[in-house]
């Protein structure tokens, strides 16, 4: 039994989606960022970085969404990790995971930090222009890497697709639409997965509870 500590419209969705793909039992505990619950002592005892998502496992607590997804993939295998005995396949998933975190997501997070996350006196407006250029360059590379494949690492779904699609949707919601047809088709295809739809419905239900 897992417990996911998260909040809607954050990287928590990645873990929620992965749990649905793995079809395992879990509990979703909302940490209300608006009310500062992530900074309370009981949560800081679990997450000293005061971040979501956080996954409580039978072995202990894990933070950072790529690490959580890698853990779930190692424990539960397909579809999160197509063939854990094939080291090259696993290596390609790790390769894509690193590319997404370091190249595709990093400039988006930089823009977010200099828009709202950092204290106002620490924000540098011009940094966002460079970050936008970095993202557009990384997106072009991702389109080339994807080519005409159905999934990020080839013909089989993996947790790398969760990271990729979530990051691409993040960019879209930040008014940075994708101009590459293969990437748009890829996102549309992956988002039709039943596990994605279940996770989306659960997140929307959690979000609706804050608007009552």
Helix content, binned percent: 55-70%
Strand tally, please?
4
Please give the radius of gyration in angstroms: 17 Å
How much of the sequence is in beta strands?
A: 5-15%
What's the architecture of the largest domain, going by CATH?
Up-down Bundle
What spatial order of strands do you see in the largest sheet?
2-1-3-4
Q: How many angstroms separate the termini?
A: 30 Å
CATH class of the largest domain: Mainly Alpha
Counting structural domains, the number is 2
Which parts are unreliable, with pLDDT below 50 for 5 consecutive residues or more?
none
Describe the structure.
This protein has 212 residues and is an alpha+beta fold. The protein has two domains: 2-80 and 195-205, Glutaredoxin (3-Layer(aba) Sandwich); 87-193, Glutathione S-transferase Yfyf (Class Pi), Chain A, domain 2 (Up-down Bundle). The protein has eight helices and four strands. The protein has helices at 12-22, 41-44, 65-76, 87-117, 125-146, 159-173, 181-190, 194-210; strands spanning 2-6, 26-30, 54-56, 61-63. It has a four-stranded mixed beta sheet, with helices on one face. Helix 1 (12-22) links the parallel strand 1 (2-6) and strand 2 (26-30). Helix 1 packs across helix 8 (194-210) and helix 4 runs antiparallel to helix 5. It is globular, with a radius of gyration of 17 Å. The chain starts with a strand and ends with a helix.
